[in-house]
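Tokens help. Our protein:
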Amino acid sequence: MAQPDQEPRFKIAIFAPLYLDSAFNEDVKYRYPGNTFPKFINPGLEFYEGAQLALDSLKKEYQPLDVFIFDTRSATETIAEQLSSPGMEDVSLIIAHGNATETKLLAEAGLSKHIPVINANLPNDGGISGNPFFVMLNPTLRTQCEGIYRYLQKYYALSPIVVFRKKGSLEDRIKNYFDDFSRATMSVALKIKYVELTDSFNVNHLKPYLDTITSTLCVAGSLDENFGKRLVQQLAALKKKNYNSSVVGMPTWDGINFNKPEFKGIDIIYSTPFYNPKTDKVSLGITNYFNKKMFARPSDMVFRGYEVTFRFARLLRQYQADIASNLANKNVKLFTDFDIQPVLNKQSMTLDYFENKKLYFLKWQDGMLKGIY
């Protein structure tokens, strides 16, 4: 077996919002009380923790890597300055947890240097186009709506379907996407009724569209979490009065805990690209590590940081200079299945970027969450 120092080394840059300058002063002293931890730091830090655990695992496999971590919320360096820093010399892969502005800058740098850029969290393309080195793992709203439409076609094609929505530009986009898929489908188009509600709607506004004999499928046509929770709560109340329905929500429902009394009694379904039942050996190992070392449970972002870093670092080691041609390779699979597909520009029919098209459908039923599709 080759020794670690004989293996070629590859360089990875990880960008995440760590807020180190906000958390520590010039003397590297923590700015907050010892028992206080600001919530805004959590997502980036948890992603980094998962990435660090993945790098530890890769090290045990004799996968030599040089990894540089960049804080996208640095008070002393802009993203542009970080991209021009010595740490970015000879980088072969960029992994990012960022907002639209940061992602666009990183994607442009990846294109100019022919470096793959993997975005782990942003669910929109940020205006990126013509970039075969950019990969979105969190699908766009269009992809999510297409997945929901196909799911409804497969399981609820003959059911009455009502989309409850509110006023708003995003709500209009969701409706337009559903309408586009209805016109383009090669199968039988769904018969969807759209109902606009105010923010203060109650059971009396929903009751005319439900039935005590036939079960109605209700779809939340809004990304607003408060709208979604109110819709589920009102439908659950009507279910107790024998108005039969199930409800399908938007991807934002992944952050809602529906295991509460006011939501029980009704089937709640939503889609997510990241589903991990946490029963496999690696997941259990991460959970045990957090329990013993940090006296806490790892968040979903920890698992995402681990999976994304492990998967693409392994692909880099396997395909080396040819990694850009193998970003969609499925040889490395941990918690979730990624279906990375090219997204074509409809006008020029050229490649805009790559996007994960895989969606899982989960169901809350009687307080239990399970994967169903």
About this structure: The longest helix spans residues 300-319.
